Amino acid sequence: MENSDVVIRLEKVSKSYGNKQVLKDIDLTIRKGTIMGLVGKNGAGKTTMIKGLLGLLKLVSGKATIFGEDSWDLPGEVKQRIGYVPQKTDMFSGWMRVKDLLDYIGAFYKIWNKDKISKLVKEWSIDPDARFRDLSEGEKQKVAIVAAMGHDPELYIFDEPVASLDPVARRDFIKELIDLNLDSGSTMLFSTHITSDLERIAADIAILKDNELKYTGSLSDLKEKYGEQLNLEDIFIELNK
Amino acid sequence: MNTNLKIMKFSYRLHPIASIILISGMVLTSAGKFSDTLNLRFFGGIDSLLMLVFVIIIALTNLVFYVLLIHFLRVTLDLQLFHMVPEIRERTIKISIVYFLIYFLWFIYIAFSLENISLSMFFITWNLYFLSIMLTAIFYNKVSVYRSNKYIIPKLLFYFSIIGIIVLHSQNLIKDYFYLVLLFQTGFIGVVIYQMINFRKNFISFNAKDNEVKGFGRFIRRVEDFFENLPDRVLKRKIERSRSSRRKYIELFEITLFGTYHWLIYILYPYIAWIVWGLIIYHEDMNVIISGIPIFSGFYLYSTIGNKDKITFLYMTSGLSRKEFVNTILRTVLRKYFVVFLPLLPFMILYTYIYNVFYGTVEYHVPVILFTFILAGWLFLTWIIWMATLQFADFDKLTCQKKNKLFARSFK
Q1: Does A113 share its domain with A145?
Q2: How far apart are CA B195 and CA B405, in angstroms?
Q3: Residues B232, A74: C-beta atoms closer than 8 Å
Q4: pLDDT, tens digit (0-9, with 9 covering 90-100), for A58-78
Q5: Percentages (nearest 5) of helix, strand, coil residues in chain B
Q6: Residues of B in contact with A103 (CB under 8 A)
Q7: Which residues span the domain enclosing A134?
Q8: Selected residues 363-402 of chain B with any CB under 8 Å from a CB in chain A
Q9: Is B167 on the interface with A (CB under 8 A)?
Q10: Which whole-number Å values give the CA distances from A16 to A23, A48, A61, B52, B398, in the listed order?
Q11: Shortest Cα distance from A229 to chain B (angstroms)?
Q12: Interchain proximity B239–A91, CB inside 8 Å
């Protein structure tokens, strides 16, 4: 029976490309208000897992649900409750100016928080008049993050959102996530290599290795298991030896 | 890669679509002149009605070349990024000369193949006059000599003298006109060559610190700004309109899939319709082109709805279920086809009427039926591609990641 505070559920999810298995029997439950960090080496299957979860690719077996709805056929209303930032920013039309691009994305949603968008654009030093194609990779990533926040989603899914951000921007981003989580109880799933960010948020952790989830739980429990003196990066390296 | 080659690559990528139009125009007209068979196939024979298409292609190619040239020269002069490339100005001039020589040789070849010496000379002079105007425009605000009469008056004198002699000859008022034309032509070319040498010197030594523009330059800058900002204005209007529209998602999808087009594009419709009509009327000679259009259209369509990043973005942003989403994509594409192609039909009927007034050989139903036939072919192709890519979509399997990479504007 579906628990009402479960936002994301993966049950025995598997995916392969030809003979190559990418995900194997993944089980994961994320409850409302959780910040879950997804950690794994390059090619561990983080992006595939996120895409499978969002119904962007077909799973070989298992079941993925978001807000209790089957991922492969998410109703429109459910999608409007999700803010998704993909790994790449090629999805936006480069010729648009940043402010127009954000307005354009806003037109898709019933609710669009213009004040919040303007505040973030200003705080993150994004030039609203610049054309998207003229921005640096880091700035593009910032725009993608801002765009995902405009409709005040209940669930955020970030696929390596900080890969191109400088340390200041990363800190601001983490702060924004914490504020969002505290203010509106948003649920967040984000994949990253930068384990120190996860420690700052004190998020729950899911570690992918060899196509399987090796650990799911709180950071403190993980540290207890491996030793308090080790940080997450040390544990991650230890796990991947 | 050699620096000069990199600059050449940049110049091509500055306006890739225009570059393709230029090269296609040059190849098509050269092929038409080189081979009678190709001439017949592409232009229905140079003496036919489609001579006009031939001339329009030459004129368009001419215009595109000079716009590309002036923009290339201006960008390398003004863009600070380029100031770091060693001897960028000298390199730019050398590359521009190479471009100009290739282009000009082609133009002379085409002009003389018209087999009318007066017309050929007029074409060549007109071409050089165009070059001269473009060179003047680059420095109009920046170097005072380009605002003086030093070039303008002698050029105009020579130019109008040549035209005057040709007109007088056509009225049988001057018999032995050739040497007179040659004399004025030489004078005119002399002024243009002097201007080119002067331009080269100024271009290389000019310190581009003065960005302030006045007079005519300000007008040019405004025109440039107008066209630069045109898509933004159209976008804003479309966004506003979509908010209260029943077809909200179709209108929003269209922006990401096809970009925005201002209604001014319809000014080109009589010209486009004329070419399409010409192709259809001469369809027996135009099979290569007619069958090529749906194939090109198919590639374009696939690069649009097969674009993984854009489709993923639209799917995740829209408040539509999977089934509604893929159906809306199809409706967007079909609507776009009708909006783009159907306005051609009234023009084609008009051309048939005009043609019949003079020649009286074409039944009205011929262009309509053929046009409908081609449109139906496109629609069928669209449906097939949609079925293959999106109908049973695993969006991750879409392969086109960058829309129209060939046409992408890039500084890499």
Answers
A1: yes
A2: 39
A3: no
A4: 888 999 999 999 999 899 999
A5: 80, 0, 20
A6: 236, 239
A7: 90-152
A8: 394-397, 401-402
A9: no
A10: 7, 10, 10, 59, 17
A11: 41
A12: no
Nearest to B179 by CA among B236, B117, B267: B117
B276-287 pLDDT per residue, tens: 777 777 666 556
Taking the model in full, what pTM does it have?
Answer: 0.71
Q: What is the pLDDT of residue A14?
A: 92
| pLDDT for the residue numbered B122 | 74
Report the pLDDT averaged over residues B311-328.
92
Query: Could you tell me which chain B residue has the CA closest to the CA of A71?
Result: B322
CB atoms within 10 A of CB B170: 11
| Strand ordering across the sheet containing A204-209 | A82-85, A155-159, A187-192, A35-40, A204-209, A212-218
Task: Name the residue of chain A whose CA is nearest to B320's CA.
Answer: A76
DSSP reduced 3-state for B216: helix
| CA-based radius of gyration for chain A | 18
A49-63 as b/e, with b when 16 or more CB fall inside 10 Å?
A: bbbbbbbbbebeebe
Please report the sign of the dihedral spanned by the C-alpha atoms of residue A92, residue A93, residue A94, residue A97. Answer: negative
How many residues in total does chain B contain? 412
What one-character-per-residue DSSP string does B260-326 give?
A: ---GGGGGGHHHHHHHHHHHHHTTTT-HHHHHHHHHHHHHHHHHHHTBHHHHHHHHHHSS--HHHHH
**Residue B360 φ/ψ region, left for φ over 0, alpha for ψ in the -120 to 50 degree band, beta for the rest:** left
For residues A158 and A140, state if they share a domain.
no
Q: Are residues A53 and A110 in the same domain?
A: no
Residue written as token pair 């081979």: B35
DSSP state at residue A131: B
Q: Are residues A170 and A206 in the same domain?
A: yes
> Residues near A223 by Cβ (< 8 Å), separated by ≥ 6?
A230, A232, A235
Percent pLDDT > 70 in chain A is: 98
Domain ranges of chain B: 3-216, 245-407
Sign of CA dihedral B4, B220, B265, B347: negative
Single residue among A120, A152, A184 that ends a domain in this structure: A152
User: What single letter denotes the amino acid at residue B189?
Assistant: I
CA–CA dist B32, B54 (Å, integer): 9
